Each structure stands twice: as structure tokens, then as C-alpha cells.
Amino acid sequence: MTTTTSTPTPAATSTVTPTVRPLTTRDADGLIQGTVRAAEALGVRGSVTVLDAGGQLIGFRRDDEAVLISGETSTRKAYTALQLDAPTADLVDLVRPDGLFHTLPTALDRPLLFLAGGVPLHRDGRLIGAVGFGGGAPEQDHQIVAAAIAEAGLA
Q1: I need a labelling partner for 119 at 20 to 30 A (CA). Which of 65, 72, 141, 147 fits?
Q2: In Å, how far from its chain's centre is CA 41?
Q3: pLDDT at position 105, please?
């Protein structure tokens, strides 16, 4: 009696990871325009930064009347949200002296910013980038970004 055993082929045992469309410059343009509208509605002048999943800049705009530092804060907020895959508004308490990440803001080469206004972007459950806004009060910055994300359909 002969017994035959079959070995599964690599294709049969591997899991297929679905391809998710990356964040595009068109997406970034839509997010920027959404933040402009939301900021104008609140009377806030600031800057918006859009980063792709690799942390590369794909969109930026600073309002003519924004304070210069808003460009840096919007970028750091976006970077922080991307690296930790969480809205920066949710991270503020974690960096207080008794917080879990209290040393994190100074532990890395690239500075993080734990103020509301940075939000990661997802498509089909996958991280595709982040957007940050700086220029208003932290709560306003978060509200502006959230409105832009909802308008762009990336919520």
C-alpha cells in the first residue's frame, strides 16, 4: 500500500494582504482645503501639514496671517499622530510627569508634540498618513482637523 502526502504550495499557505490605496496628493489637497474652511469658520489662522504613511510631507499650507511657529507645530503634531497612530489630543495626559510616556518627548531625534491638532489617517483600517493643524487653541486645532478629515471622507 502506497500513501501519498501532499505538501501545500506556498500560495496556498500564504495570506494575501489586501492592497490599500495610499494617501495621494489629491487627498492632501482636499484635506488642506477642508482645514482652510474649518479654520475660517472659527476665525483661526494657522498652518496645516499632511504626511504620508512614511512620514514624508505631501501637503502643507500656512495662512498669510498665521504665526510662523504654526508651521512647525502643525508638522510635529502630524508626525506625532503618525508615529503613535493616535490623535495627539488623546496623548496629552501620557506625557505628564506621572504619565506612561513622560520621557518620550525628549527621547527621540525628531521631536514629537503632544498638543491636540494631529490625527492619523486610515483607509480600510490601515494607517496611510496623518494631518496636523497649528495656530489656534489646541481644542480648535483638533476640531479643524476632525472637520477636514470628515469632509474628505477619511474618517
Answers
A1: 65
A2: 22
A3: 61
